[in-house]
Design a protein that fits this description.
44% of the residues lie in helices and 12% in strands. The chain is α+β, with helices and mostly antiparallel strands. The longest helix is centred in the middle third of the chain and has 10 residues, at 51-60. It is globular and about 40 Å long. 22% of the residues are buried.
């Protein structure tokens, strides 16, 4: 990729975007998923994120949470932790990588009934 493109979450111009499945691929065969979404829609629900945004989303949320609660770009962007990160990173240059990402512990603490991996 020679031209810079924009991350759909933070809006930064970067030279490398990663594909984020809004409904995680590991959840495509899930019965609830099959009941709620058309198969074609599941495969088309994709967003293009810069690496820091993609890492941050997966550090914050489990696959199940992404499938059930954050399966649209709007729902992801409206989450307070994502919005705070986006506001912080949007002014950083292409190639910038944050030193730390939230841990799996933070994801577990977000939902009181979540089980450890």
């Amino acid at each position: 990729m020679n031209e810079a493109e924009r991350c759909e979450l933070c809006g930064r111009e970067v030279h490398l975007l990663t594909r984020h499945h809004l409904i995680p691929r590991t959840r495509h065969a899930n019965k609830r998923n099959k009941r709620e979404f058309d198969r074609a829609e599941v495969k088309k629900r994709v967003a293009w994120f810069c690496r820091p945004c993609h890492n941050h989303v997966h550090a914050l949320f489990t696959e199940k949470m992404l499938e059930r609660d954050f399966n649209t770009l709007e729902s992801l962007a409206s989450h307070p932790d994502v919005a705070r990160f986006v506001n912080w990173i949007r002014h950083k240059p292409d190639g910038f990588r944050p030193a730390n990402q939230p841990s799996a512990n933070k994801r577990r603490n977000q939902k009181p009934n979540a089980t450890p991996w």
